[in-house]
Write a structure and sequence with these properties.
By secondary structure, the protein is α+β, with helices and mostly antiparallel strands. The protein has five domains: about 1-35, no CATH class; about 45-170, Topoisomerase II, domain 5, CATH 3.90.199.10; about 255-330, Gyrase A, domain 2, CATH 3.30.1360; about 355-485, Orthogonal Bundle (Topoisomerase, domain 3), CATH 1.10.268; about 510-740, DNA gyrase/topoisomerase IV, subunit A, C-terminal (Neuraminidase). Helices cover about 35% and strands about 20% of the residues.
Length: about 750
């Protein structure tokens, strides 16, 4: 079947010569584009640069900007376009990123003058006609040996100039300069590390190729970012990044409380965020989680980075700072994805892999440099050896030149007269007349011994790769000594971090709580209640709870479907007395047909506290509150009580005060809670004990603990005579036999 399908496709393509299989189209059209984007644009190579960086820096090098005064950025951009056929603004944006003023790099490559914006802000940089730039002295470490054949030189885009294929960086710049790039189906995200630590790690691998990740973690503590701040150290995650080149690094800002001004000063922020992102995060949470913040002031200036956050007078600074970390990008993550182009092939490498590839690259650069030096010195030695031969008879050399009739015969005659080759003869023939003296020649010949020693040394180095690596070690030590600097990003361990509890995130203030029989809840501030204290209720509804509580207080709701919902006062919105309030079922997302039957404020889950449940079949049971204690932040508990008979009501037992149980015939009894049996299983309903004897077709309809409010006359008579309205008070021993008539 597959063979027939292939044959059919082949015949169709032959009939339609303009068509081609999609696989062929991808191979011939799409894949070259993919490779071009990866290699020629988006992904850095082992020297740590993308093509745009490399072309710009090399142009500045050829312009002589390693020394001397700065040049206008517009001029630099124009010259770079000879190597980089893109728009002037894209080149200028590359220049901006590499400058000292932009603060993108730990070790900037360009010394800048003017407004170049900031990496941590969307603030626009000045136009290139207003700014000036030149190379930093640090750039000497990326161009070392470039004029000594250390790297391949290739044609530029129109074949009119040569440019380096890579820059011969004398340190692993790929791990020192941060780099981000997105290609087709591939992305790279390389964080920066401390130069001194990377030099030490490279030296360790050069001396001992078996250096493992554990050793590298001791040397290279963690990434180091230009903006400072903190790395929240996670050993497991850091090991993953070091070994695979993929993972995440959590960063945190540096914040301090300024007591004099009652504000929080943000002094350093994560590399992965910006001022604008932080401002937006704060404003988005200002009316809810960050109410304590009153102002956002950008105070960045000559003294450095600083954002000041004004606080309310009663704010707790430490808690506000913790909330800022939780709800804003003042705590953020840098996603690592170490994709690097090595020999025109993208590779994802860990730190050791990148350093090993750089060592291989650097050894190749130095081998080419030493070979170049060897050839130059050998050529010079060869010429000086020829010069030494005329020392024996300078007059003869002069005579040969003098007696030669044609200019073109001077070199052949010298070759014949002294037994030297053509390059030697050319060299001697080009010596100025004033230099044909014994002193000059003897001084030149004195260089022979030095050259011979240098050549011997170079040959030894080229014959032994260990000597080349020793040379790299020496260079790295010099670079570390000259340019090394302390870590900017400090290390913070997770164990040192104080995490916010749920209570910490809730605003602490007193409110008035009102709860109705139909399940409506009102949270009202004292100020609002003073303005209007008359409560609006639905028709037929009534208040069952009114009191002062704290916004952090816990709430517990039992429902008619044997479920318990846990909540807090803070979960409900502030309202007014003139409003109906918030329906609990909607806020807590009750099931269909579910309604609340009991609310408890700040429940006590000790063994002494109980819940009394009464059921339509006349039974009642007490369940200890300890049965409802849950672990963690559980919001819902099923099977809160027995569902064998429909629930009539529930009471939170706070004392042994009599409660009233009412049946469908308006008859009631008063009993003490202590006479109702305790069951340690939530779903127990009891077996033989009835709270109230019921006749056929009768059922319980209500259980009341504050009956004195609902039936004041009966309550007053009970207090005076100990006899309810129309019946004898039931004794504790006879609770199931005698009833009273209340209506």
């Amino acid at each position: 079947m597959a063979k027939a399908k292939k044959e059919a496709i082949k015949q169709y393509v032959e009939r339609e010569p303009t068509l081609q299989p999609i696989t062929e189209t991808i191979e011939t059209n799409y894949m070259p584009y993919v490779v071009s984007v990866m290699v020629s644009r988006a992904i850095p190579e082992i020297d740590g640069f993308k093509p745009s960086h490399r072309k710009l820096l090399y142009t500045m090098y050829k312009m002589g900007l390693m020394n001397g005064p700065r040049r206008k950025s517009a001029n630099i951009v124009g010259e770079t376009m000879k190597l980089h056929p893109h728009g002037d603004m894209s080149i200028y944006e590359t220049l901006v990123r590499l400058t000292r003023d932009n603060e993108t790099l730990l070790h900037p490559f360009i010394d800048s003058k003017g407004s170049f914006g900031k990496q941590y802000s969307s603030m626009a940089f000045a136009a290139p006609r207003y700014t000036e730039a030149r190379l930093e002295p640090f750039c000497s470490e990326i161009f070392t040996g470039i004029d000594r054949d250390s790297v391949d030189m290739v044609d530029n885009y129109d074949g009119t100039m040569k440019e380096p294929r890579l820059l011969p960086t004398s340190f692993p710049n790929i791990l020192v300069s941060p780099n981000l790039g997105i290609a087709v189906g591939l992305a790279s995200s390389i964080c920066s590390f401390n130069l001194s630590e990377i030099c030490d790690a490279t030296i360790s691998i050069l001396k001992n190729p078996r250096t493992n990740t554990e050793k590298l973690l001791e040397i290279v503590k963690a990434p180091d970012f230009p903006g400072g701040g903190f790395v929240i150290y996670d050993r497991e995650q850091m090991t993953k990044v070091y070994e695979t080149g993929k993972g995440s690094v959590k960063l945190r800002a540096k914040c301090e409380y300024n007591k004099n001004d009652n504000c929080i000063d943000i002094l350093e922020i994560p590399y992965s965020t910006s001022i604008e992102a932080i401002r937006k995060d704060i404003m988005d949470n200002k009316d809810d989680k960050l109410k304590e913040i009153t102002a956002f002031n950008d105070e960045i200036g000559k003294d450095g980075f600083k954002i000041s956050l004004g606080l309310k007078r009663d704010a707790e600074p430490d808690k506000v700072i913790q909330k800022l970390y939780k709800f804003t990008s003042l705590e953020d993550s840098f996603s690592c994805n170490f994709n690097v182009i090595v020999d025109s092939v993208p590779k994802q490498l860990g730190i050791k892999g990148i350093i090993e590839e750089w060592i291989r690259f650097r050894v190749g650069c130095l081998r080419r440099e030493f070979t170049f030096d060897l050839n130059k010195k050998s050529e010079k030695l060869h010429l000086l050896l020829g010069l030494g031969k005329i020392l024996l008879d300078i007059d003869k050399a002069i005579k040969i030149v003098k007696e030669t009739e044609r200019d073109q015969d001077v070199v052949p005659n010298l070759m014949k007269g002294f037994g030297i080759d053509e390059p030697q003869a050319e060299y001697i023939a080009d010596i100025k007349l004033r230099h044909l003296n014994r002193e000059y020649i003897i001084n030149r010949l004195a260089d022979i011994e030095s050259l011979q020693k240098d050549i011997a040394t170079l040959k030894e180095i080229l014959a032994d790769e260990l000597k080349i690596k020793a040379y790299i070690v020496k260079q790295l030590l010099d670079i570390k000594k000259k340019y090394g600097q302390p870590r900017r990003t400090q290390i913070m361990y997770a164990s040192d971090i104080v995490e916010l509890t749920k209570d910490d995130m809730i605003e602490d203030y007193e409110v008035n709580l009102f709860y109705t029989k139909d399940g409506y809840l009102k949270k009202i501030t004292n100020q609002s209640l003073r303005g209007n204290s008359e409560q609006r209720l639905k028709d037929g509804d009534s208040l069952v709870y009114a009191g002062e509580v704290n916004n952090k207080d816990e709430l517990m709701f039992f429902t008619n479907q044997a479920q318990v919902y846990f909540s807090r006062v803070s979960d409900f919105e502030l309202t007014k007395a003139s409003e109906l309030g918030e329906y609990v079922g909607k806020r807590l997302k009750f099931d269909e047909g579910e309604r609340p039957i009991l609310m408890i404020v700040n429940p006590d889950f000790s063994e002494k506290q109980n819940i009394i449940f009464a059921f339509e079949n006349g039974k009642a049971v007490r369940v200890p509150m300890s049965e409802y204690a849950t672990q963690g932040s559980r919001k819902k508990l099923k099977k809160a009580y027995s569902s064998a008979s429909p629930i009539v009501g529930a009471i939170y037992e706070t004392s042994d005060k009599h409660i009233l149980i009412l049946n469908s015939e308006d008859k009631a009894i008063l009993i003490r809670p202590s006479l109702i049996p305790i069951k340690t299983t939530r779903t127990s309903i009891g077996t033989t004990v009835f709270a109230m004897n019921l006749k056929k077709n009768q059922k319980l309809v209500e259980i009341i603990d504050n009956y004195e409010k609902r039936y004041p006359e009966a309550y007053q008579q009970y207090r005076k005579t100990k006899i309810p309205a129309t019946g004898t008070l039931l004794s504790d021993k006879d609770i199931t036999k005698k009833q009273i008539k209340l209506k």
